[in-house]
Amino acid sequence: MIEITVSEVLEEVKEYQEEFSPEGLCIYFAHNIGILLKEQGIEYYKLVLSDYIDTDYYHEFLVTMPNDKKQAYLIDPSYGQFTPNKQQLIKFKKWPADVLKNSNKGKLIASQLLQKGLCKTNEEGIKTYLASFDITQNIADIDFSFDKLKSNSKGRNI
Fold it and tell me: In whole angstroms, what is the distance from residue 60 CA to residue 48 CA?
C-alpha cells in the first residue's frame, strides 16, 4: 500500500517536477504523501535533516513504522537531488548518494530511493542514510531511534 501511494504521487508530478526547487520538491512530497498515508491510517513521521546532522540545508523526508516496528519505510522521492548531476554540489562536502553507496546497505538504500522513492529498512539503515549527508558524522552518534520517534522527542507526527 505504501509503495503504491508513493508511486502515485511521483507519477502525478512527473511532468511538473522541474518547476520545483529541490527544497520545495521534498516539502511537496512529504506533505502530499503524508496526507495519503494518514488517510490510510498509516503511522508516519516527517523528519527534517537538520534535526539529525549539522547542516543548514533544509530537507524533509518521511519514515513510516509498520506494525512490527523493526522495519520501516524511508520515503524520500526527491533523493535524486543528492546525486552528481548538472547542479553544483551545495552545502555538502561530497554527494550524499556517492557516500551512501560506499556500503552494501547504503547501495541498496540509494538504489531503491532513486528507483522507487522509498526503501524498506531498519534503524541502522536510516542512520546510514542520515550519515551520508555529513561525512564527519559517525553512524553510532546519530540520535535516531524508533522509540524516540514514538515519544515525539524528534520527528513530527502529523
Answer: 5
Q: Is residue 157 part of a domain?
A: no
User: How many domains does the chain fold into?
Assistant: 1
Residue 156 belongs to some domain of the structure: no
The 10 Å Cβ neighbour count of residue 140 is 8
Is 136 exposed, middle or buried, given 0-12, 13-18 or 19+ CB atoms closer than 10 A?
Answer: exposed
Separation of CA 58 from chain center: 12
pLDDT in tens, 61-113: 999 986 666 789 999 998 988 888 756 666 777 888 888 998 899 999 999 99
pTM surpassing 0.85?
yes
Q: State the amino acid at position 125 in one-letter form.
A: G
